Input
Amino acid sequence: MTSIARMSRMVKQLFEHDSVELAHAAGLRQRKLTFVQVALILVLGWWKQPQAGPSTLSRFAGSLGVRIEKQGLDCHFTERTANWLLALLRRAVEYVVCAHAVSLPLLQQFRAVLIEDGSSISLPSVLRSVWRGCGGRAASAGKDAKTQAALKVTVRWDRLSGRLQGPYLQEGRQHELKSVLREQVIVPGSLWIADLGYWSLKWLRAVSQSGVYFLMRYKAGIVLWQGKQRLDLLSVLPQVTGERLELLVAVGADKVVSGVRLVAERVPDEVALQRQERIRAYADDHGKPVNPLVWELAHWTIVLTNVPVCMLSFEQVLAFAASTRACRAAFQTLERVRLAR
Output
């Protein structure tokens, strides 16, 4: 746990030194305010009131002992300022997140334990020329068009060393696999964990062939093979709560990835109902019907991995699969952050 004294030193370093260094790197020019003052006004002002505009921020500046008119702040709302604030956020994440390495023997058998995740943030539709969303529903009376503009935030967290790569930004309509993280080499012997948004047989084959282990939840509709027979998954899944199943399968219609462990467990009815509520809400938000197979598979936790059983037991596979929740919790905080417009 980070002490108050240590946190104080990190905040002082971040605002008084890093903000200046990163501002020069971003090509910013100092105007009426110093880089330190601009950073404090924008970060703390939006932290206090995320919807604040130039007028509100200029009043907030007064509480910091800085006198500035709203026009003086408005000139800072540029793309360069946004890039500067993103760099400042990444530096802050390095200080806080990367301070906590884990020394568990279970993790140390891998070169790295990488948890990758992404989350979309809806933006006002006026920004759709900068951050294109997925389209979504048209605007209704008194409401902005939903998902006309959005950005996607992606990160990769090494649970073993405590290092976090990102956050990186991309258009909301782009797939997570378009993240710049795809350009960064994963060391052989590492374990890569991701959620359903990252499903790609091509990527899993590349990862497996490069000597990297993967662990992901099963995505409904992906073809599985057991030996030479195509697997009817619903017919073999356990029907009693808590009952388990483990099989060795090949994945993909053309058996793109072979030697994969399928680990499944029947969950309690109340857990299945919670999942189905999320499935229904997601379908409603995206204007799509509920997939019957996805609905039915909510009754099981199903994971695919190429990690051999001698390295991870059944219970450990399920525990690792749940670890992506840590990134999701972090994104709940990130989604409250306002970038300079």
